[in-house]
Write a structure and sequence with these properties.
With 302 residues, the chain is an alpha+beta fold. The strands form three sheets. It has a six-stranded antiparallel beta sheet. The longest helix is centred in the last third of the chain and has 14 residues. The mean pLDDT is 89.
């Protein structure tokens, strides 16, 4: 079973809701427990993940083929088996702590890892008004501040079957940003990017609509043909480099009026910054982040 098939199954469930609201009566619980259940004792984010793998005929990839509806049990299993990671990729199970208690309280599936450090996830029993008990299957955008880690099932390799025909063409990128893929598929890993107007030497065309480009720094990559305008080569060779987004400076310098408050927050372990040490002082905080700050204030000061 590949990660993409699991993601596709999860995406097909987006919009499914428990009925009635706030009941936890939903098909994922019914299949998990073998009967219809309802009430506060049956939150179903983890039962949703179990259902996805079971529906794909890959139940052995989730918790070793056993059943659990308890997120900390999932985390412990994947940690014990060397399948726990600090950064995620598509198909990973992502475990969350929205309360700051240091325990997993919610789970989802990573659909994509985004360039801004966030993750697009598909989660059961979530909602715009309640991250971990919202009653709906939804696509969400999540940041590392609420993520405990990533459990990685032992998926089969996503190998793409295709054939190539050698060509000698010059291509010009006609999209604002175009991903360079490791294989000719949107499900394949992104290994670089191009921006509009970049020029490339195309060495092959695939039978599924992609161009191959051999880069001097990242090796062979593939570009979706619809976003590349082609012409016959010029006498002079073209040396292309993938587009690299500029590195953003850390937002760690407070305005003068806030210097004392920021330093106190750092000294009292209320703010830590992200994995790179960026405090993001001028970014609006979310309601969840504010609750974490208040919890740390209560724990470390009061």
């Amino acid at each position: 079973m590949t990660a993409q098939k699991i993601i596709n199954m999860a995406a097909s469930q987006i919009g499914t809701k428990e009925s009635p609201a706030n009941s936890n009566n939903v098909k994922y619980n019914t299949d998990y427990y073998g009967r219809a259940v309802s009430g506060s004792s049956y939150p179903w984010c983890c039962a949703f993940i179990w259902w996805i793998f079971n529906a794909c005929g890959a139940s052995e990839l989730f918790y070793g083929g056993k059943k659990t509806a308890y997120c900390p049990t999932v985390e412990s299993y994947y940690k014990a088996n060397g399948m726990w990671f600090n950064s995620g990729k598509p198909g990973d199970l992502v475990l969350f702590d929205f309360t700051g208690k240091g325990i997993s309280g919610h789970i989802g599936i990573v659909e994509s890892a985004n360039s801004d450090g966030s993750y697009t996830t598909i989660e059961g029993n979530t909602g715009s008004g309640n991250d971990a008990n919202g009653g709906t299957v939804m696509r969400r955008t999540r940041y590392k501040s609420s993520i405990r880690g990533f459990a990685r099932p032992n998926y089969a390799s996503d190998v793409i079957q295709f054939t190539e025909t050698s060509v000698n063409l010059i291509g010009t990128i006609n999209a604002s940003v175009l991903n360079i893929r490791k294989q000719p598929s949107t499900a394949s890993e992104i290994i670089g990017k191009h921006s509009n107007g970049d020029v490339v030497n195309i060495t092959a065309k695939t039978d599924n609509g992609w161009y191959r480009v051999d880069y001097p720094n990242i090796g062979t990559g593939y570009l979706y043909a619809d976003y590349v305008s082609v012409a016959e080569p010029t006498p002079e060779p073209v040396v292309q480099q993938p587009y690299t987004p500029p590195t953003e400076e850390k937002d760690n310098v407070p305005d003068a009026w806030a210097e004392t408050a920021v330093q106190n927050a750092i000294d009292n372990k209320i703010i830590f910054g992200d994995d790179t040490g960026d405090l993001k002082l001028h970014k609006n905080c979310t309601r969840q982040e504010m609750l974490v700050f208040l919890y740390r204030f209560y724990k470390n000061i009061i």
